[in-house]
Amino acid sequence: MTKALVVDDSHFMRTVISDILENGGVEVIDTAANGKQAVKKVEELDPDVVTMDVEMPEMNGIEAVEAITERHPTPILMLSALTTEDADATLEAMEKGAVDTFAKPGGTISTELSGHSEELVAAVEDVAAADPTAGHDVQQSAPTTSTPAADADYVENPTLLIGASTGGPNVVESILSALPGEAKFRVLIVQHMPDQFTSRFANRLDQTSEYDIKEAADGDRISGGEGLVARGDYHMQVSGYSNGRLRVRLDQSERRHSVRPAIDVTMESAAEHIMDPLVAVVLTGMGTDGADGIRAVKDAGGSTFAQDEATSAVFGIPERAIETGCVDEVLPADRLTEAITDSIRRST
């Protein structure tokens, strides 16, 4: 049975979360009212997973995540309110070592959370299965490039498709931050993440990369050097492509693999509409989303890559894609940007 430590400064929320987890088959071995208590109890009790509030007295969630990651690495799920401030703080906590996030519906203290019991239990179980050091390590590794970008000769009009879930934000950021602007990719990113978080995630990618990245809106068009992050709770489909510009459509059609946005939806539609060079990469995460998309890109003549098990917080998504036989290379996180750019270099 999964053992959890519940951390929240609200006694009410600690009770609600604990009851939900216990009813879902997760053993809550203790609770903590602030980050300082959490750090001490993680070292004493060695839980399988920690649910971590963001705003707390004495030591907040970001500080607690950093301390736990340094002293006693443990999978951490951030429980965040649906606010801009909490979204920014949660992304920072994930940079410090948290594995994933779960949005508390209705705000910081709300009985609405009980209506999402199954989703919360599933998120806790997914994070408990993660390697707590894999997603953090990639932030410490500078991605490599084999040749200075200025000397490279790239094919025209390439499109890069990136799919990720649990543990993915840090890896996505590491890839984008090292992606040479001269390659002029059109970039489409599907990161399983709650609505309200995807816009903040897009902003972070925009700030740390040479590419102009934003959260996708229905009907958006992008050209080389630009990218879109699929909006939370919306599938992002490539609906048109002409003269190096692609257009996307957002919709809330049926979930695939129980998720929306789905990696497969974006990759399959890109393979259908884009005739120019395609590159697809699937990263850390739980589940099977992305396998069909990788197959579609490969069938369309594109290049395909998957993150390796050693650097994946959760190896589910890459493993399922690899099992299709349609992945060209399986690589550690800090070698993916190099492989992506090499795949679009002109042959000499």
In short:
This protein is an alpha/beta fold and 348 residues long. The protein has twelve helices and 15 strands.
Question: What is the subunit arrangement here?
Answer: single chain
Q: Provide the low-confidence segments as ranges.
A: 139-150
Largest sheet properties: 7 strands, parallel
Instruction: Using the CA coordinates, give the radius of gyration.
Output: 20 Å
> In CATH, what is the class of the largest domain?
Alpha Beta
Describe the protein's topology:
Layout: E1 3-7, H1 11-23, E2 27-32, H2 35-45, E3 49-53, H3 61-71, E4 76-81, H4 84-96, E5 100-104, H5 117-128, H6 134-140, E6 159-164, H7 168-178, E7 186-191, H8 198-208, E8 212-215, E9 221-222, E10 226-229, E11 235-242, E12 245-251, H9 263-273, E13 278-282, H10 291-299, E14 303-307, H11 316-323, E15 329-331, H12 336-342
Parallel strand pairs: 1-2, 1-3, 3-4, 4-5, 6-7, 6-13, 7-10, 8-10, 13-14, 14-15
Antiparallel strand pairs: 9-12, 11-12
Note the main attributes of this structure:
348 residues, Rossmann fold, 2 domains, 22% strand, elongated
Describe the structure.
It is elongated, with a radius of gyration of 20 Å. The chain has two domains: 3-132, Rossmann fold; 140-342, Methylesterase CheB, C-terminal domain (Rossmann fold, 3-Layer(aba) Sandwich), CATH 3.40.50. With 348 residues, it is of the alpha/beta class. It has helices at 11-23, 35-45, 61-71, 84-96, 117-128, 134-140, 168-178, 198-208, 263-273, 291-299, 316-323, 336-342, and strands spanning 3-7, 27-32, 49-53, 76-81, 100-104, 159-164, 186-191, 212-215, 221-222, 226-229, 235-242, 245-251, 278-282, 303-307, 329-331. Strands 8-10-7-6-13-14-15 form a seven-stranded parallel β-sheet, sandwiched between helices. Mean pLDDT is 91; it is low at 139-150. The chain contains twelve helices and 15 strands.
